[in-house]
Sequence to fold (563 residues):
Amino acid sequence: MLKKLLILAVAVAIGVSPLLPRVFADSGSWTNTVASAAWDYDFYRVERLALDEVSGPYDFNDAVFVTSTSGLETVDMTIFQDGEAFEIEGVDERVSSAFWHTAQDGRFIYLVPSDDGEIWGTVYEYDSTTGTSTVLTQIEQTPDDLDFMTFATDGDRVYFGTIHSDEDTGKIESELSVHDYDSTYGRDDFSYTLTAPWQEIVDVQDGLALVKFQFSGGFEQLWLIDQTARSMEAIPDTWTEDPGEIVGAHFVSDGSVRYFRNFRLFSYNPETDTTPTDAGGAYLSWFDEVGDAVQIVGDRMAYIDDEDGLYVSSVDGVSKFGVAKNGLFNLDEDAIYFQNLDGEYVGYHFSTREWETLSFLVTDTYEDIRVGIDTDDNVWYQNLTTGHLLNVGFGNEPVVLSDREHAYWQGADGNIYEVTFSPLLDLAREDVEAFSSYTSDGIYLVADGNMWLIPDPTVYFTWFDSWDDTLEVSQATINVYLETYEYKGDLKLAAGTRVKSDVSNKVYVVGSDEKLHWITTETVADEVYGSDWNQGIIEVTSTYLWKYATGSSIASTDDVRSI
Fold:
């Protein structure tokens, strides 16, 4: 049997301050996440974060964060990355809306409102690769401005909408403006004035703004406004009377617009179409909140109907992928994941057109790492390179990844949990079996067409938990194995094993290269193995270690992945 990957340790609660240090939006100050309790396991650490009454976690445009209410229309936002927290005060509450991020050019852009009477607020961009938040522009407030509506980002320009009072007539009007923050190009009002509509810039592409207007009485309509040509036109047949509505409107790369009008999906290309066309598929579910029923990633949009039928819209049309049990699904950059009516967790990959069956509902991916949850609320981790599959906790959907070492979810108790994965999970792992003969003392390990002799109990118990994991067979069977498999000689200590000499305090980790790698500091050891890193170290004679070559030293968690 394969050695068990999980050896549960006793949960140890850690008493800490219940508050995270606060920083300003432009300070770029990160602090370690603060936990109220922590549990160490062989390959990961789970921490219950000391956060009160937060919503989330959210994962938009490579940023993982939670929010807490701070004002009438503002929230305090805490971003997570690399096991650290960055709190930003007074952010526009729309930062938690998926459709807000659809309009931000694939970047994590947010607004910190102001009430000083000079600006409506400051627009920031968070860069997950550097962990910094920088100012893009400030939205100017003129003396006649009455209210700020919304904004969208396209390249180096921010498009925003305001409502103001005409200085000559006194009429309440709306206007759309643009500001190029990467040049000296200032604010430019480019729309015709419209009398008192509520407006939302839902997307911008190549200078063409897609705007939803709502007029008195709840009537809605989609408009295309060209900032360069100074033109604006309503998209035909989008006028919708209350309680009808327009949702999910966005551009796709071929220049067309996709949107739901009264729960029906339409497509419109301003270059070729005279009227919108029914895009096919089915009606959008009216039993679910739009944010739960629709997901948009790039050119693809996934949605469910009133019977949880799952559809994906792309430039090639609309396809049905089955029924998503309980209406849960996750659209990734190249895949759609859901649980089908047979209870199977499945994924379909658009690039290869292949299906796969999974152990859980995938809710997020990062490089070759996947996380998710099953119907019993078990939280799962999967490493596609090494094959590690771990049950790491219990909570609610979704589970999200900030990087390859950290995932977050909300527990049933309402708290936010953080799991830190050991870099040891990136070491190569093989499915192995052990065999011995009834008439011989030798024990052999077999894996992937190869065979090794296990030289001693020390090596054996780095691969297996018990002698019961060895299958006894006849010597004739062993001889057949030796003839069939490639014999590799004596087996070495399993990769990830901590070992030291009885005459030295130096602790080494065995790499996939079968070499000894010195762990240079206690800090690194704690990051790799947890707070009890000094437990479970195998002590051998110095002559025993002579069998092993010495490899590169371990000075960071990244070094572990290269051994």
The chain has a mean pLDDT of 88.
